[in-house]
């Protein structure tokens, strides 16, 4: 409405000036010089008035935009002027100023909201530009680094030289594990990086997380589970020995008197021999159990070398071919590229993969159906990591058991020791890699070795 009224005002003024200009020309051509001069003077005043009117409008609009640019929310144009065009323009500028200020307030509130979330987050956040300036550092990051004012990456040298080198060399999508020591404790940190773009500026978002609590919690949980298994296995061996010892001791007792060897009958001697045999067997089982534990804790350091995955897989195929049930297995090998290699201890990798393949054969054999086992080697997306998958279409692993299969001595097999999977995971850990599992009941189970 304001622009329309202003438009009409200017059009009327221009038409009026045009009419006067024609009048001056007409009077001049008809020799009415005096009237032409007076009218020309009036024309001049009208032109000057139009120019001043337009300049006043331009100055007000320019003043308005300058105020907006300088974030001046106190600007207000009077609306009690008699000129309707000016009054409408003032109303429009005031309304536009109100809307702009409202948007700014909402943006500030939203910015404050997100800033509060970042400040209260249990994870540390840093944003770096290409020159190493820290544009944002939340409270958690400052607390982890014990530094109140982080403005440049060079300040991290004062915190920890190793930490500074790690963060300064971070590339997009990197994930690193490090530790820093302060006055109170040593803190384990995971550090991840992600590229972001704000406006035309390329930044790197660095996410820092203290994993001490998670490590302590997982360690405690693992110890509890291990103690449960150890207690269960040891009690299974010791309880019969204790019971039999009491039974055998009663053979030599008769109404509070001790029997002599000559007082033993044939049945007593037979029971004594059977009892001692059982004690011997239980003792052997207990020794075997302890030896299994020693095996788990005495794995030699990997002697790494470059290994062709194709050669490794073929060896696994040959070694597992003697397993019962292999004849009903379709054994498939899939390698992303013919020259895909891993840097590992070959003997230990054969031990890990052979154990996983044997488990798969045994689980499929129990179902009585023909099965498929796949050995897959590939490069992980957006990473230099190599992954080996051992996949089978067996019965799968239930969710209740899935989170326990890597616990030492935990087994669902009648003749199993519960060492294989925990040993395999420990070997992968010694290689600086991981062993994980994913299973869908009745469809498939997949073990993944990430190097």
From TrEMBL:
The keyword Methyltransferase does not apply. The chain crosses the membrane at residues 7-29, 35-54. Gene3D superfamilies: Histidine kinase-like ATPase, C-terminal domain (3.30.565.10), PAS domain (3.30.450.20). Residues 229-451 form the Histidine kinase domain. Keywords: ATP-binding, Kinase, Membrane, Nucleotide-binding, Transferase, Transmembrane, Transmembrane helix, Two-component regulatory system. It catalyses: ATP + protein L-histidine = ADP + protein N-phospho-L-histidine. One of its GO terms (molecular function) is protein histidine kinase activity. Its EC number is 2.7.13.3. Signal peptide: none annotated. GO terms for biological process: phosphorelay signal transduction system. It comes from the Bacteria. Coiled coil: none annotated. Pfam families: HATPase_c (PF02518), PAS_8 (PF13188). This is histidine kinase. It comes from Gelidibacter salicanalis.
């Amino acid at each position: 409405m304001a622009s329309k009224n202003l438009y009409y005002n200017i059009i009327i003024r221009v038409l009026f000036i045009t009419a006067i200009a024609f009048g001056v020309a007409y009077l001049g051509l008809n020799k009415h010089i005096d009237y032409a001069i007076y009218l020309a003077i009036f024309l001049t005043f009208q032109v000057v008035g139009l120019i001043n009117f337009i300049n006043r409008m331009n100055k007000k609009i320019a003043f308005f935009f300058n105020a907006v640019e300088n974030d001046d929310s106190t600007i207000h144009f009077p609306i009690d002027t008699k000129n309707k065009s000016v009054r409408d323009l003032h109303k429009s500028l005031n309304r536009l100023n109100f809307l702009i200020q409202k948007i700014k307030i909402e943006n500030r509130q939203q910015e404050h909201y997100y800033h509060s979330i970042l400040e209260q987050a249990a994870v540390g956040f840093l944003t770096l530009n290409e020159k190493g300036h820290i544009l944002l550092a939340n409270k958690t990051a400052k607390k982890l680094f014990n530094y109140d004012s982080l403005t440049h990456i060079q300040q991290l040298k004062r915190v920890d030289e190793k930490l500074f080198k790690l963060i300064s060399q971070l590339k997009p999508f990197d994930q690193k594990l490090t530790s820093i020591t302060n006055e109170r404790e040593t803190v384990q940190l995971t550090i991840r990086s992600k590229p972001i773009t704000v406006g035309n500026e390329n930044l790197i978002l660095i996410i820092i997380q203290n994993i001490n609590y998670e490590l302590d919690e997982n360690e405690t949980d693992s110890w509890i589970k291990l103690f449960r298994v150890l207690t269960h296995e040891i009690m299974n061996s010791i309880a019969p020995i204790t019971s039999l010892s009491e039974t055998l001791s009663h053979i030599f007792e008769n109404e509070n008197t001790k029997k002599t060897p000559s007082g033993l009958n044939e049945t007593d001697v037979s029971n004594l021999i059977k009892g001692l045999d059982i004690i011997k067997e239980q003792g052997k089982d207990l020794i075997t159990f302890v030896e299994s534990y020693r095996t788990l804790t005495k794995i030699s350091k990997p002697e790494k070398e470059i290994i062709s995955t194709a050669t490794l897989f073929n060896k696994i195929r040959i070694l597992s071919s003697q397993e019962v049930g292999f004849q009903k297995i379709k054994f498939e090998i899939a390698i992303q590229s013919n020259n895909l290699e891993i840097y590992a201890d070959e003997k230990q990798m054969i031990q890990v993969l052979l154990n996983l393949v044997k488990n798969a054969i045994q689980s499929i054999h129990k179902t009585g159906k023909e099965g498929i086992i796949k050995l897959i080697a590939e490069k992980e997306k957006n990473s230099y990591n190599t992954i080996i998958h051992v996949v089978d279409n067996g019965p799968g692993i239930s969710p209740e058991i899935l989170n326990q299969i890597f616990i030492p001595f935990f087994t669902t097999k009648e003749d199993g020791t519960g060492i294989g999977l925990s040993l395999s995971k420990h070997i992968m850990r010694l290689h600086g890699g991981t062993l994980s599992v994913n299973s869908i009941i009745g469809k498939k189970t997949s073990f993944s070795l990430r190097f």
